[in-house]
Amino acid sequence: MPVAVYVLGLAVFSLGTSEFMLSGLLPSIAGDMDVSIPRAGLLISAFAVGMVVGAPLLAVATLRLPRRTTLVSLISLFGLGQVAGALAPTYAFLFASRVVSALACAGFWAVGAAVAIAMVDRDQRARAMAVMIGGLSIANVLGVPAGAFLGERLGWRAAFWSVGAASAIALAGILALVPRIPLPAERPTLRRELRIYRDRQVWLAVGITALAAGGVFCAFSYLSPLLTEVAGLDAGWVPWVLALFGAGALAGTTAGGRIADAHLFGVMLWGITASSAFLVALALLASAAVAAVGLSFLLGFSAFFTAPALNARMFNVAGAAPTLAGATTTAAFNLGNTGGPWLGGTVIDAGLGFEATAWAGAAMTLTAIALGLLALRADRRTPPPSSRVIASSGSSASSGSSAASAASASAPAPSAAVRST
Question: Is the pLDDT score of 77 beyond 70?
Fold first, then answer.
């Protein structure tokens, strides 16, 4: 695996910490900004919506720009967004800084995923994505609890300063280790890239990703009150259980990344099936503290076990437009991260209890399984795609190749096939 892929994973650690750390900082932010906690919670929603909207917009806007330059610009903008948040004098200013950070984060994910995929062979795509997603997993295990710790000891602004510093380190790594990736002889055009959306498999991949992610986060978003009010745990246990979920996520990402290249549909379908089973078990056993804690780890494992396969699947069906493929995957995950918590809040407002969020999440993941079976059936009936045509030489990239050969893999030539069903 090229070291540049690990540098991208480090950058994702910064992005993920910023995205999720507000869950432990909301009371402090609300008190300092003189707003209610629900209004402070809108800062989280603003980031998620910014990710959904920003990923395709930034992908299109940077389509003809050198990818390394784009990565440098986006991680710099993201870091400045953290500094602006740390210095924010008002709630409105902080809200604006979160939107800017989300747009930069979304664009970096989209372009960074395309760069990671370009630097490895087709049969290493899931492993490359596992490295990037691993940065997100480590953010949940270390970054988010560290942000909460800093917020408690030094104030919430210290958490923003620390993420800004981590972004600066990632920027230095990108400048030093990510190779320059020249544009192909024939520059990509928006019309050609948009052709991927004619493929039913692309839309199936979007639906599977959004429902699989949304199902787990439908329950995870309300795990804290479930643990305290249903399972009867003391509030002091909550950070440890959240860290346990993150540990499961890291283990799942590692395992899924190693298996998914050889068994993509198997990892995808069995992983989502496991998530469904764990959600049902959580709904039934939520009042038992030991079961709720153990299932938190298992849900983290199953959710992130499928993530490398979900990412690789999108690049397989939309390989003719790698930047838009990365953007579409990012948007799909964040659709789930937005829709799942909304559905969970709806069932809670209906008076069904916190354990009902697990039932609602299971309904989402079961729907994802149905879509996955449709995609598998269509995949078996479709002839395999033609070999990727790489730049003007037609040679394929290898994981151990030089920066120049990795760069030539960054964008398939116009003749590369788009799978259709």
Answer: yes
